[in-house]
Amino acid sequence: MNFLASIQIALRALRVNKLRSTLTMLGIIIGVAAVIVMIAIGAGAQARVEEQIRSLGSNLIILLPGSVTSGGVRMGAGSRSSLTEDDAYAIQREIVEIQAAAPALRGTGQVVAGNNNWSTVFYGVTPEYFEARNWVIASGKGFEPADLTGSGKVALLGETVARNLFCDADPVGQVVRVRKVPMTVVGTLERKGQSLMGQDQDDVILMPISTARNRVLGGNIAKRRSVGSISIKIREGADMAEAESEIRSLLRQRHRLQFGKDDDFTLRNLSEVLGAREESSRIMTLLLAAVASVSLLVGGIGIMNIMLVSVTERTREIGLRMAVGARARDILSQFLVEAVTLALIGGLCGIVLGVTGSYAIGYFAQWRIEVNTQAIALAVGFAAAVGVFFGFYPARKASTLLPIEALRYE
């Protein structure tokens, strides 16, 4: 008996008991669909993390001022003005692993444009900030050298600020007032979306650091070159730990800190945090897929159960076939093909259900979903393997029946 004949006999046998075959396939259908949906959800979460990593900037170290202790109470990071623009320039100049070191001043306030207003955060930055934080200008232009040296009243708007102040109108060339200081909008920034902490990264205004210091923040800030943070981008392929160690050594030397004295600054390696987040997302994807695979196992047990029943019901048929010349391998292949056919048909139906369910969850739950062909191939391959594994024992049992005993079976 050839393989094509075995398939025809298997399909004929499955059509005889349509309801039983459908119920048997149901476990495989649910299992395959669950695997595809779980992998799609996990892959979407991982893709979202990777997107956030790209938006923050790769190989990034954030340098913050140290803390102040008053009356035995430590005020927390950033409460001490210990970093300056000169520190940033020294880091970029003296450490070969550094690609860009960008000092920044941060403030918050009300921004007004015509009859609209919006409360947001603004940063005074240098050109290195765009490279360090992977900021891209969507329209307009960046800051001119004269803007940086002369405290030019110019600004770049994030997407959220531009939308709330100007709706669908082009903000480039318009005037906004930041803390009552009029500024000309010279450009807008590309959308970045939410950060890992859920903050809107597009709710921001960027201006020259000299403008923020001298015109907007004013007061004591204008009297010194202190900054609120320094964003440091490490060159691709460089050792992050080594770069962090060199930054610490250089700053301790510049700040004249004696041996054993605490740092007056704080280093935060975002790559480690983001890497841990990405790894946890990947592990969660694998766990979701593993949990969903349990339903495939249950479906496989159902196939074995039904095939054993089928062997019992068709014992006389098996004996008759073997009596007229069918070999043991023909009987083995017949029942094995039936089991695999059940699994594959269930797998194909599961693919349709899984892909449809994935996009439905993404649409209604507003989740990021990533359906890939690898997940589909994995689910179908696993379904076929389930059919072979759980169908082999019933098929083997049928092929070892003795013709004379099978013909006598009532």
SSE pattern, N- to C-terminal: HHEEEHEEHEHEHEEEHEHEHHHHH
Estimate the mean pLDDT confidence. 81
Summed up, the helix count is: 13
Whole-number tally of structural domains: 2
In the predicted model, the low-confidence regions spanning at least 5 consecutive residues are 69-74
- What's the number of extended β-strand segments? 12
Radius of gyration: 33 Å
- Overall 3D shape: elongated
- How do the strands of the widest beta sheet line up side by side? 4-5-10-7-9-8
Measured as a percent range, the helix fraction is: 55-70%
Strand content: 15-25%
How far apart the termini lie comes to 27 Å
Write up what this structure looks like.
The chain has helices at 3-16, 18-56, 85-94, 128-132, 145-149, 159-166, 209-217, 240-254, 270-313, 315-323, 328-365, 373-399, 403-408, and strands at residues 60-65, 69-70, 73-74, 98-113, 116-125, 137-140, 154-157, 175-178, 181-189, 204-208, 229-234, 265-269. It is α+β, with helices and mostly antiparallel strands and 410 residues long. Helix 1 packs across helix 11. It starts with a helix and ends with a helix. The longest helix is centred in the last third of the chain and has 44 residues, at 270-313.
